[in-house]
Write a structure and sequence with these properties.
Structural class: mainly alpha
Order of helices and strands: HHHHHHHHHHH
Largest sheet: none
Bound molecules: zinc ion
Helix content: 55-70%
Number of helices: 11
Distance between the termini: 42 Å
Shape: globular
Mean pLDDT: 89
């Protein structure tokens, strides 16, 4: 039975991914998400249902438009596969629960932020601000520490030293993210943008105290990837590397395993 649900959720993820792809295509250029209907970016031919089946359409058409043979961005396929796998895993991780819905929603929003920054070097305020409001609202009913399952050590730490109500966790997390990244922007003078500051605040609202795990992981991940790209001469020092993808990835990992990582880290001492 479990396996059937995992497959159902993976399929749901692939379908949701089609909408996420539309968001990634249209949000940066202020187009409406609903009109016009899906069309080829190259010949503007309206796409039929058979062109829009996640993953299968892409493979069937060998990654090209049915009408003009223009290549379909590989990102479309990547987002469909990635979101499908993630949704299947999310079901396995959370089981059928309100936490599952919340985690899936956050994952979708962070996937959009990740890809848009990769492709356009933009962190979209129209995604970040509404997500902040939603995260605060959710925290009233479902504390961040419930979504990112705290293990024993983390729970003890949180309950002993830190306030419990969800909205307090969320607000304190947001404050920590905002404060730390403001500091980084002021010190690095342009090394990091205001978009990253807003995003750090958002991640705090979503993850609560685990913001520290998320930011720590994002910085290490970013440094490793940036270092390798420089070493391999794929990027030059001046080009700059978008940071939102690392922040997004670290947030998703923190939602799923943040408390385990924190427990492991605390266990080192
Ligand atoms: Zn076309």
């Amino acid at each position: 039975m479990e396996a059937i649900f995992i497959v159902v959720f993976a399929l749901l993820g692939m379908t949701v991914a089609s909408f996420l792809n539309v968001c990634m295509d249209r949000l940066p250029s202020n187009e409406s998400l609903l009109f016009p209907a899906s069309h080829c970016a190259s010949c503007h031919h309206r796409l039929a249902i058979k062109d829009l089946i996640p993953i299968f359409s892409y493979l069937w058409l060998h990654g090209r438009c049915r009408y003009c043979r223009a290549p379909i961005p590989r990102r479309i396929l990547g987002v469909e596969i990635g979101t499908g796998l993630l949704f299947g895993y999310l079901y396995w991780h959370y089981d059928l629960s309100i936490e599952l819905a919340v985690a899936a929603l956050y994952c979708c929003l962070f996937i959009v932020l990740m890809v848009v920054d990769l492709e356009h070097g933009l962190i979209l305020n129209k995604v970040v601000y509404p997500t902040m409001a939603v995260a605060l609202l959710i925290s009233v009913f479902l504390p961040p520490s419930k979504v990112a399952y705290p293990g024993e050590a983390a729970t003890l730490l949180f309950n002993t030293f830190l306030p419990e109500p969800g909205i307090a966790q969320s607000a304190i997390g947001g404050g920590i993210g905002l404060g730390l990244f403001l500091l980084v922007v002021l010190i690095s003078r342009g090394g990091m943008g205001w978009g990253d500051v807003k995003m750090a605040a958002l991640i705090g609202l979503v993850t609560g105290y685990l913001i520290l795990v998320a930011l720590f992981m994002a910085v290490i991940l970013g440094a490793l990837v940036a270092g390798s790209l420089l070493l391999l001469k794929i990027k030059r020092r001046k080009e700059g590397i978008p940071f939102a993808p690392f922040l997004s990835l670290a947030t998703i990992v923190t939602l799923l395993w943040g408390s385990n990582i924190l427990n492991w880290y605390l266990g080192l001492f």
